[in-house]
Amino acid sequence: MESEQRRKRKRASAKPYSVSQMFSLRSLVLCLSFFVFLLFLSSDRSLTVSTASFRPVLSASTLSLLSSSASNSILDTLHHHRPLSSSSPSAPRVEDRVLFPDHVLLLVSGGVRRREDLECVYRALASNGSDRRAEAAVSVDVYSEHRSIVRCPLPPANFSAAELDLRRRGGGPADGGGEARSNRTAAVQAWDRVVYAAELDGDSAVVFVKGLNLRPHRRSDPAQFSCHFGRGSWDKDETFMLRTKAVSAAQEVIRCPLPKSIRSNPIKAQGVRVTIGLPSNFHTHGRSSVRVPMPSVARIYGSKGISEEVGRKKKTMKHELCACTMVWNQAASLREWIMYHAWLGIERWFIYDNNSDDAIEEVIEELDSQNYNVSRQSWPWIKTQEAGFSHCVLRAREECNWVGFFDVDEFFYFQFPSNPRRGLGIPGKDTLKAMVANFSSSSPIIAEIRTVCHSFGPSGLTSPPPRGVMVGYTCRLQRPERHKSIVRLDALDLTLLNEVHHFRLKEGFRYLNVPESIAAINHYKYQVWETFRTKFFRRVATYVADWREDQNKGSKDRAPGLGTEAIEPPNWRLQFCEVWDTGLRDFVLANFAHPATSTLLPWERSSSPSR
To answer: Coiled-coil ranges per the record (predicted)?
Structure first.
């Protein structure tokens, strides 16, 4: 009885926690979490904040970080994106907008299908947002594994591109399950000043920037730049961001080491935005210590899928010889170029598509289905060929030992008979690959093989040759113009600096000029006017004047005697003709003509030739 009374007294004295006690416990947990957060900051020297001294701000993102479990790191908050809609987590979301001279580019995350009928929705400048106008999207394309691009017309008069949205044509949802959402806090970025792309390269990030106006074809001082990693829009005050100093800079490419916290767990870099910090007085050639972030639409990705794909490729043998090119509306030339050079030994193809609208993706898909190992990278950034080639190096490095960088109107030609002292034998199948192997094995310091180009003219024709350029064009200028290169990827300079025609090499490596008696490149540069006049629309190289610009008229990059208007000069069909050269034509007819007809060439029919 007494023991029963004692137990009742103990139960009566065991009162539940009061509200104030529970609040104190939660406060203690939050304080401890915040202390751990500060320790993390101090452990990474590359972490900075947007103000001169560290003043923590309890914004929504910071509270979210503090209330997360102990297993969540800063990078979880850096790369985390809230679901776009509860019913459709892959609903498209307009993340960024870039204003080009002739269109607005939207970078979209989530599910946007190619060839989808979308409308671009503009908001009136002088309204509360209720006055809208819709225009059909120009095109929809895949940009990467994680993002798509939609090209929209320039906004109508009195309408803005700043809050440009998407919807399915006719007013329906953009993905069939939810309205496309947009990042309305991000301003539309002008193309002449923006960080537009970024790629992981080992323990560093390679960042592509428009608007630095660095000296072409030279290294620049990297000390004036820094890389900033974070989330959100750079026109807003960031709660925190990671920063590292640049280690190389050239033209439009800046390289920085990754922050230590990202290096230790690159998968957490998924979707982290990257920008470049400039001295506040950069454009007046000052050396201010204050770094001002540039506008950026670039993100880096380190997904598990990519890591597994890279690991798989490392386990397989690399291709000895690959090719990379940048094209605009050259689908009609692609089959001949790839089929011919595949026969010469090129095993892998990287096609950078600079805003084509001639169904080039269908040609590439067909070639790839026929075991021509071809991939297409949508590259929407205009006049960035040098940067695009640097980007291609990063993509090809895990798959290829050597890569040739040349255009789809350029074709290797081996003289017959070849020099027997070089060990190449009679020109034939895999001759190009054999040449690269022969020269590279002769000296371990050879890292670039340069071949001169001969420029061919219209050769008396007035319409495109139906059997291809190699058979159709047979008259050229006597003296060679420029050269193109095949480079060894592991010997390229850290900057990835190139001039389109060749790359800068690491110290200790050198290039080799192929004797013209062994090989040359037939450059079908001045084709019939119907084909040539398309060059007046735009050129892809950064530091080459467009045909319509009244400058550098005497440059080899222009047509001698041709003005700035797309008007056919008199006797165009007879120009640029000094030497009749039928060597490659005869070689092609001897080696590629179909045995049953003696005339049909592989690129003239839909099925692929035996290889």
So the answer is: none
pLDDT of 317 reads 87
Cα–Cα distance for residue pair 107/296, rounded to 1 Å: 12
3-class SS at 531?
Answer: helix
What distance separates the 2 farthest-apart alpha carbons in the chain? 124
Measure the CA–CA gap between 235 and 186, rounded to whole angstroms: 7
**Local confidence band at 425 (pLDDT 50, 70, 90 cut-offs):** low
Question: Which segment of 199-208, 307-316, 558-567, 602-611 scores lowest on mean pLDDT?
Answer: 307-316
Residue 230 exposure: Cα atoms within 13 Å on the Cβ side: 28
What is d(CA 157, CA 70) in angstroms, rounded to the nearest whole number? 52
Q: Retrieve residue 10's tokens.
A: 């103990």
Contact 568, 562 (CB under 8 A): no
Two tokens, residue 220: 């620049």
Neighbour tally for 166: CB within 10 Å: 27
pLDDT, position 285: 59
CB burial string 394-410: b at 16+ within 10 A, e below: ebbbebbbbbbbbbbbb
Length of the chain: 611
d(Cα 487, Cα 504) in Å, to the nearest integer? 10
Taken in order 495, 498, 499, 500, the sign of the CA dihedral is negative
Averaged pLDDT, 74-97: 51
Residues 175 and 111: beta-carbon distance below 8 Å: yes
Three-state SS at 233: coil
Structure tokens at 43: 């452990």
Residue-level pLDDT at 288: 61
Residue 15: how many CB atoms within 10 A of its CB?
7
User: Residue 163's pLDDT band (boundaries 50, 70, 90)?
Assistant: confident
Say how many Å lie between the first and final Cα of the chain, rounded. 100
Q: How many CA atoms lie within 13 A of 479 on its CB side?
A: 3
**450 burial via Cβ count (<10 Å: 0-12, 13-18, 19+):** middle
DSSP codes, 313-372: HHHSPPEEEEEEEEESS-HHHHHHHHHHHHHHT--EEEEEE-S--S-HHHHHHHHHHTT-
Sheet order of strands, 159-168 included: 132-136, 118-124, 159-168
DSSP H or E segment with residue 65: helix 60-66
How crowded is the C-beta side of 135, counted as CA atoms within 13 Å?
A: 19
Q: How far apart are CA 430 and CA 74, in angstroms?
A: 52
